[in-house]
Amino acid sequence: MKKLLLLCLFVSFSSMAQKVDLSYYLPKDVSYNKSIPTPVSVIGHEVGEWHITHDKLVEYMKALAASSDRINIEFTGKTFEDRPLLLLTITSPKNHQNLENIRKTHIEATNSSSVSIAENPIVVYQGFSIHGNEPSGSNAALAVAYYLAAAEGTAIDDLLDNAVILFDPSFNPDGLQRFAYWANTNRSKNINPDPNDREYREIWPRGRTNHYQFDMNRDWLPVQLPESRARIASFHKWLPNILTDHHEMGSNSSFFFQPGIPSRTNPLTPQMNQDLTKEIATYHAKALDKIGSLYYSEESFDDFYYGKGSTFPDINGSIGILFEQASSRGHAQETVNGVLTFPFTIRNQFTAALSTLEAALKMRTKILKYQQNFYKESRRTGTNNALVFGDEKDAAKSYHLAEVLKRHQIKIHEVKDNFTQNGKTFKKGYSYVVPMNQKNQRLVKAMFDVRKTFKDSLFYDVSAWTFNYAFGVDYAENISLKKAGNEISELKMKEGIVSFKSDYGYLMPWNEYYAPKALNAILQKGLRAKVSMKNFKNGDTSYEYGTIFIPVQNQDLNGLELYQFLQKTAVESHIVINGVTSGLNDGIDLGSNNFSNIKNQKVAMLVGSGIVGNDSGEIWHLLDQRFDMKLTRIDISYFTKIDISKYTAIIVPSSSKLGKLTEEKLKTWVKNGGVLIGYKNTAKWLAKSKFISLDFDKTKMDTIQNVSFEDKSLQSGAQYIGGAIFEANLDRSHPINFGYNSDKLALFRNSTLFIKADTKSYNNPIQYTENPLLSGYISKENAKLIKNTLPFKVEKLGKGRVLVFTDNTNFRAFWYGTNKLLMNAIFFGDKM
Question: Residues 6 or more apart from 644 whose CB is under 8 A from it?
Fold first, then answer.
């Protein structure tokens, strides 16, 4: 598998090189049904002549489905930009007539080892271009779909009789459309392969991501995006045996197919999975040899994080296969291997798609048996106990974690009765029990896995994603199944309510996840609201730091109108708002100055070249989709030319340099009372620009000995924190921590920014513990360094505040547990 072919047949380049026809991609010894429309007859250009736009891709897939009895098309959902998500089911006409029975029999074989798989078709899910600016996959999908619809002869008949192909021509419609627009609008008549040409220098935020700038190839496990939800529903409906994921990589590379680096395989993945992957790879090698393409395997990428398309199948009894094609990033580009043309990249993807199907057909029985044995072993190794998670003061976070499990068809139960375990109380209606004797128990283990030791110290992605830490819920393992109540068939969120109509005021605890959404609605309505800076008790109810008080008097709404508005807000935000009859409390009274007025927030965020797009997109998504807050995104290209005085808070996602004029403008704005919130590398820039005093610590590497030239990059790479989870102590009286129920918090970290603690303890409201690693990889050097450092710091600057976070509190939309830190920074930043 380490073989490299010495001959690389790139298409010879000229201004006419793009005008290849369909025969360039298709096998030469096959006849084709003339009644099936070719791509050019529908989309108006040859495959590879222009970059396919998503609307044309949809148009062609619909035309194929209308003309071929081998293809059924369904619309499984919509993207954030309202583009349709397609799934084609491709198999023989005979199989189509019995498709639901085929599916049921296929699933039943995973439920019982007594079901014969001898005659079952193999199920192959083929997916293309989850990164929109890696477009050779989706463009190849045109040719692959045509081949499967139009090819004639015993070979194609044999394939379609013995396989059901789930065909997703575009995993990422929004990103694909964005990139196609860029590549096509910058295409010259005389194709210029100079890498410096504008065509190959895509502007921010580029087409890799979806609408909210998420890398969707990290969302297979968290399932937070509509594209992922549709895809995962189809996956679990069918449980395919093989799933292919077509990508691109650097232009000076060749073609990669799995296996990846063996030492970077997740230990929960069976060895047989890797053995089968390696056998399938021989088919790719043979097919690429035939057309003279360079390739490699086992030298790059890893199979550790189960949130990627190439690894998610591995923990679900399937085989995930990653393809990485050197990218032309446009129509043609000069590379170390010669001029790399777009049609050439498409042909390699087409070839790998067909070699996958050949392998699936010839290895059908072996792969079907592997899947059946995977679930047999899963049932055998399941234990008669359970895990439990919940949060008695934040039902929404727990609900959303349960929602993820349900999307993966994991069985969950109610808590039968309240109980306490490891000092945590799990209340009925607020907690969920997950039995470990169920079919998907391996997937459950993967989601809640805690791992601190590893074979390898390098990771292509995160080394930890433990879901109870990510969602910030209480958690316990090895719970007796007797504590499980009824299985939950349909999840329901808690209903919001106002306890009663008050003539005095209302109190809204800040613990619930959607409390910021409610507060924003209240402030946007022009109502006055205050936040409690201390704990207190009103009547028989205790209230904690951050409780919101809405007085009845001197509001723009009368008493009845206020009650009705708050009732509507409570329902929409799934929270409880309590009416009160008196302002006299045990502790601070409702008229105390320890209730501080809250401003109606007007929030802006810097975006554009130099800003990390994923980080800014996650913030945009959080405020827009979760909390219904308007966010003004200001491109740094025109930031210095506009009036920013109206904004109460400005967020700067990770960036290393913003320029002198931007620095001066921001500094003036902060001194006049603004709250500036910086993330990750922005913290270094803010310190260097004297917005805030930060004392950074750096890893001091010992003298490196016995490391060869070949391994020097491994030595330095081991110091990188690709994504791990660490524990911090919280000072819950500090406004940044309002709404948290525990003195401990799990934080995600993928940076090596270490801020030394302040000598005054009250200036360290969030501080890593003495032994902070909860899950994931960190080098010995960095493990020593991170102890007692700060992931957050705030300082006054004039009338304003500067707040910095060393890491992303909104990571990939599923880190619910730390989302509130940003909301506290926005609403209460001026009180810190």
Answer: 604, 634, 650, 665, 669, 674
